[in-house]
Design goal:
By secondary structure, the protein is an all-alpha fold. Helices cover 62% and strands 0% of the residues. The relative contact order is 0.16.
Length: 64
């Protein structure tokens, strides 16, 4: 791992997103995945990344 965030790749951000999902941090996972998608040159792949890690603030359902 690098200490300079500019050196991180889309794969690094995706690894972080998966780690955050595994530890129950969906919003951080979403943010990391969004950065991975931004760094991905292929639009179809970026769309797939975004679909895999939806924004939990808009995806959650309210309960009474």
């Amino acid at each position: 791992m690098t200490s300079d965030p500019a050196d991180l790749t889309a794969a690094d951000y995706l690894d972080g997103a998966r780690e955050m999902t595994a530890t129950g941090r969906p919003y951080l996972a979403h943010l990391l995945a969004e950065e991975a998608a931004r760094r991905t040159p292929d639009p179809a792949t970026a769309t797939g990344i975004r679909a895999s890690f939806p924004d939990p603030t808009t995806a959650r359902k309210e309960s009474d």
